[in-house]
Amino acid sequence: MSNLEPREELASIAASLRAYLEWQLDCGSSGIPRRPRAATAAVPPAQAAATPSAASAATSAKDEPSDPSPAAPSPIVRERSTPGGAPAAPPPGSLPPITLTESAPAPSKRSESATPAPRTIAEPRPLPVLVSDVASCTKCGLHATRTNTVFSRGNPEAKLCFVGEAPGADEDAQGVPFVGRAGQLLDKMIQAMGLDPAKDVYVCNIIKCRPPENRRPEPDEIATCIPYLHEQLALVEPKVIVALGNTSVGALLGTKLGITKVRGSWKLYRGKIPVMPTYHPSYLLRSSPQQSEAKRQAWEDLQAVMKELGLAKPARS
Ligand code: URA
């Protein structure tokens, strides 16, 4: 952003502002939401650790409670960390990290040799292999009713990852996450952050197959599917995750607290990746008296994410 000519920068700010206003209009607003007088304290930096686990989603994004292929280089595409760097210790109770695993060294026929015996390294599956393994998955009943598995969209090199709940009808039909109404709103939220949904973010879900009738995924379905997401996130290595709605927050962080309680405060995924819980776009699309405040809070959450990523503050804040 800062490398832009003033005229380009102005155009970019105007584009963000337009996306933001369209987002608000889609949600039924007629103006810019304002912070209430008794404003809450600023969101602290990523710090609070959460206990990760598999499946414990309490409620669905689809009825969120009132409590409750890489393109041109982009400003936030990260440099990859050096392979083999020391991984952070996972917190107690977490699933084992998906990294290189070494088998015991095979006994060497030339044990007198000073050269250490070669060790067998089991490499993690590359992303395309994981995608195709997911596409043929039959581990839970959802495979029987799906049209397509739904793996991801966006840029796997991006620093920022959004994790939703599960595909709906449009996503099932196209095999791409967040392409329906909620996805259109998500794109406007991303654009309002000054980011390009195709280049600057990676988008995926807790569950890779559509639950029939768009019902909330069952805990056993989440438990069966979430190892794929853990593997996916270990390969993509986002710098920040935005967890959209109750199911995502519950499954990523192992909390049963509703989204209204946890949103806006930084948590850690597997003890190392900052997670910002916020409302699911489907919830923001509903019209109810709470929505205006929820939208303001969601925007506050996304601004905290921008700050964490060192992105320019949007003009309207
Ligand atoms: N809602 C989600 O959580 N994910 C999608 O892919 C679409 C809608």
Structure description:
- The chain is an alpha/beta fold and 317 residues long.
- It has a domain at 127-309: Uracil-DNA glycosylase-like domain (Uracil-DNA Glycosylase, subunit E, 3-Layer(aba) Sandwich).
- It has helices at 6-26, 127-135, 169-174, 181-192, 219-236, 245-253, 259-262, 281-285, 291-308, and strands at residues 101-102, 121-122, 152-154, 160-164, 201-205, 240-244, 267-269, 273-278.
- The strands form 2 sheets. The protein has a 6-stranded mixed sheet with strand order 3-5-4-6-8-7. Strands 1-2 form a two-stranded antiparallel sheet.
- Strand 7 and strand 8 (273-278) form a beta hairpin.
- Helix 1 (6-26) runs antiparallel to helix 4 (181-192).
- The two termini are 17 Å apart.
- Uracil binds next to helix 4.
Task: Itemize the secondary structure elements and their pairings.
Layout: H1 6-26, E1 101-102, E2 121-122, H2 127-135, E3 152-154, E4 160-164, H3 169-174, H4 181-192, E5 201-205, H5 219-236, E6 240-244, H6 245-253, H7 259-262, E7 267-269, E8 273-278, H8 281-285, H9 291-308
Parallel strand pairs: 4-5, 4-6, 6-8
Antiparallel strand pairs: 1-2, 3-5, 7-8
Helix pairs in contact: 1-4
Bound molecules: uracil.
Uracil (URA) binds at residues 61, 164-168, 171, 177-178, 180, 182-183, 205, 282.
